[in-house]
Amino acid sequence: MQPRQQLLDIWKAQVAYSWRPADDGSRRKEWHWGGRNDSDAVGDAQQLLCLLYPAQELQDLRYADPDATSDAVLEALSGLGDAVEIPIRIMRLIRDYMEKHVDAEGVPVYSGGSNMHRVDRSQKATAEQRAIDVTEGFALAIPLSLTALTFLADFSPTVDRMGRADLVNELAQVEQTVHRRLLGAITGLLRSFAVSTFDADDDFGRQLIALINVDGQPDRKIVRRFREEAEEIIATLRTITVGSGGTAGVEAPTKLFEIGWSWSVVEKAPDIPDVSDTSTQRTGRAEDAPYLYFTVVAIEAIATLYSDLVMRRNLLTEEERRLAQSLQIRLDVTRRYWAMVASFGGGSKWPLEDVPWRTTDGLEYDYYTLLVCAVATETFGSSRGGDDDLIRLADVLVELANRGRITRRPLVGDRSIEMHFPGVKAELAGIEKLDGPAMIWNMVDFAPLLLKRIYNAAGLLVTIDARAELLEVADLVWDHLARRRIRDGGAARLWDQPKQVFTELPNWFEDPSWHFTIRVVEAMVLAAKFAGSEPARSRSLETLAHELLVEAEHIYDQELLRGSGNAGPALAQEIRSVGLTIRHAKEVVDERPATAFSLGVKALIDLDRLISAGRDAETGV
């Protein structure tokens, strides 16, 4: 797969597509926002993150310091200039984005209007509908802001050395606008959190009970067990007092509920007091009910607020940290809720394993199963006790690769192809109240999202066989994605051209989908991190290595006692070399048991040879 090289190739292709002659016919070059979809806050954030995100996550791909930028990075970004010009242009791209996506009063907007599609094509969407802030806009603004702040902090010493007052002032102004967008995004996510309650005997309740009742128990018993397992979750919801959410009636003993993020700020979401900038707190319009897709993008964004890099670099202001703590509560309780539902009952079969997942509004898609995996993986890998749960989740991911026609060939008229294009549709309930048509949001990222989830799960797994199986599937998913790369034209080497795999599809695209490409970029970053991590450890091999080293050390001590260490120079050097081998093996046995085992075998072979040589010398043979 060579993820680092793939990321460099994406950069080179992106610069070739986006940095091109201006539309006014002059020879001057400029950045062209947008791709397959028109420019908006969501799509442009994805486009910019393709440049910023890998450089933050992978040390050897950074370009903020001209003196430390590698030749490979300089070659990939050469269309933007030399080592000094590249970071200046990146800084100005960040500035352009921040200035472009504001309303008439200069307040940041988080809209994704070009990804909204009318249910009734004969009706025209209103400008207010297209401009509404969406949860994905809030979610993208967080990693975009954090990567931008990291880049600006790394570039600042170079700007100071240049001695250019204009660049110093420009950098400070950009940083200020980034923090304003970040604060608005955090408050937006606090106000788009949703808690939906319903009775066991209404439509939503019956759907949830049918989903989690894998053992055929009486409904009454399922409701009681659900309430018992959700007791700590309900207790946590009581602590949510800032923004939307809270208990919202879940404490009633007969109620069932769902939690997560809606598609936008929920209707009647309260304003958040004691915030320095309240201008981004617009009136909520969305249905107060969670959407799995928007829950996943919100959770991934919130997790970046607590990454090691953000904590170490102290990127957040005191106000941002205070509000982020409220998001952390929502993140934790949402993960616990969906892990509980996904494995409800804890028996021989989980609801998650009954593919496809069925939502409480009666929809079912393999894509929804993948989204539940995305929410629940971290919980399965930490508080749930390790590999047993993760192996079951990994089996679901392998099945999804098959059912999604990624590791199996598609059939004619196969419904699974719809997940790849035109995608799974989510109705944006509430947007019709803005005097326009009902609208939907298309989700077309099944394949790259699956690759992300596979690497995420593989990184948490310790069991070698299960990890190896997942990595084999990861290679097949990557092969699938590589075949969907655009091959010709200005967007060559970017994504997505699904017709190259699913030939029955009618659409052929000339421009890239930044929504799809950023998902591939995120998957490649995870793959690169995985490749740089410690290999999986075999517990049985670790035990065997320890036992082998005990024997090797004992025999080594016997040889020292026999006086081999005081023998002639050649023999003494050999016995000392064996001692060093044993010592090194003991140092690495916990992290790399296979390596330690091999070193122990070598030490035992060398010791046996020395013992045999000593016996031969004594007997004269």
Descriptors:
621 residues, mainly alpha, 3-stranded antiparallel β-sheet, two-stranded antiparallel ribbon, 22 helices, globular
Quick recap:
This protein is mainly alpha-helical and 621 residues long.
Question: What does this protein structure show overall?
Answer:
The chain has helices spanning 3-18, 41-57, 71-76, 85-100, 127-131, 135-162, 165-191, 203-212, 219-229, 231-237, 292-304, 308-313, 318-342, 366-381, 387-403, 417-420, 446-460, 464-483, 514-531, 539-562, 569-588, 593-619; strands spanning 19-21, 29-31, 116-118, 193-199, 255-261, 357-358, 364-365, 424-427, 439-443. With 621 residues, it is mostly helical. The strands form four sheets. Strands 3-9-8 form a three-stranded antiparallel beta sheet. Strands 1-2 form a two-stranded antiparallel sheet. A hairpin with a 7-residue loop joins strand 1 (19-21) and strand 2 (29-31). Helix 13 (318-342) crosses helix 14 (366-381), helix 14 packs antiparallel against helix 15 and helix 20 packs antiparallel against helix 21. InterPro entries: SCO2524-like. This is SCO2524 family protein.
